[in-house]
């Protein structure tokens, strides 16, 4: 599970575009906490700290404990809007978590034991179809990543969701099909070599034999007759 993060915040006294612009000029990012059958809380957080946590790479899949007004609110980040030019955060949304809540999250996949894959050892390529899995998880059991073991996988094999043992408290959000996560394919160079080999086998046998026969026999006989006449 991703480690819980802590994000200090302050309550927003004023809402609206003008107030939000003033906060951004002061290095703060306006945000809101909603959900959990409670009234939304408008807050603002320090821009530098928000960026630092975003750069961890697992911010969006982590429980974030927001400290505001002496209270701690367990949340899950739902969206961080970025400026289209500067990429600086301009607004953040956090979903309040009940202790027994189940939520849908996107969890990255990581492939392990690549050295134990016969297909990869001989030059095959792992074609990743899904870099993330959509899971429904218990709020306090959100995994940081899903490990997928490729031991024994050969060229032509596929990895489906049915093969993956998900962590306790997590199930796939997609239940109507056994979708593909990755396939093991031959590299282009190997494919080209196989195609060239196939083309070579299709050359007519009589054509090859003619090349191996040497000089044309009729031409040789004609030369011999000319020598006799002389």
Structure description:
This protein has 230 residues and is α+β, with helices and mostly antiparallel strands. It folds into 2 domains: 93 residues, Ribosomal Protein L25, Chain P (Beta Barrel), CATH 2.40.240; 87 residues, Ribosomal protein L25, C-terminal domain (RNA Polymerase Alpha Subunit, Chain A, domain 2, Beta Complex). The C terminus is likely disordered.
Write the layout of secondary structure elements.
Elements: E1 5-11, H1 17-25, E2 28-34, E3 41-46, H2 47-54, E4 64-68, E5 71-82, E6 89-96, E7 102-112, H3 118-121, E8 125-128, E9 132-138, E10 146-149, E11 158-160, E12 170-172, E13 180-185, H4 188-201, H5 205-212, H6 217-229
Parallel strand pairs: 1-4, 2-6, 7-10
Antiparallel strand pairs: 1-3, 2-3, 4-5, 5-6, 7-9, 8-13, 9-12, 11-13
Structural shape: elongated
- For this structure, the CATH topology of the largest domain is Ribosomal Protein L25, Chain P
State the helix count.
Answer: 6
Looking across the biggest beta sheet, what order are the strands in? 1-3-2-6-5-4
Low-confidence sequence ranges: 200-220, 225-230
* Secondary-structure element string: EHEEHEEEEHEEEEEEHHH
The CATH level-2 architecture of the largest domain is identified as Beta Barrel
SS-based class: alpha+beta
CATH secondary-structure class of the largest domain = Mainly Beta
Estimated helix fraction: 10-25%
Q: Gap between N and C termini, in Å?
A: 100 Å
Mean pLDDT: 83
* Tally of domains: 2
Using only C-alpha atoms, the radius of gyration works out to: 32 Å
Largest sheet: 6 strands, mixed, barrel
Strand content: 35-45%
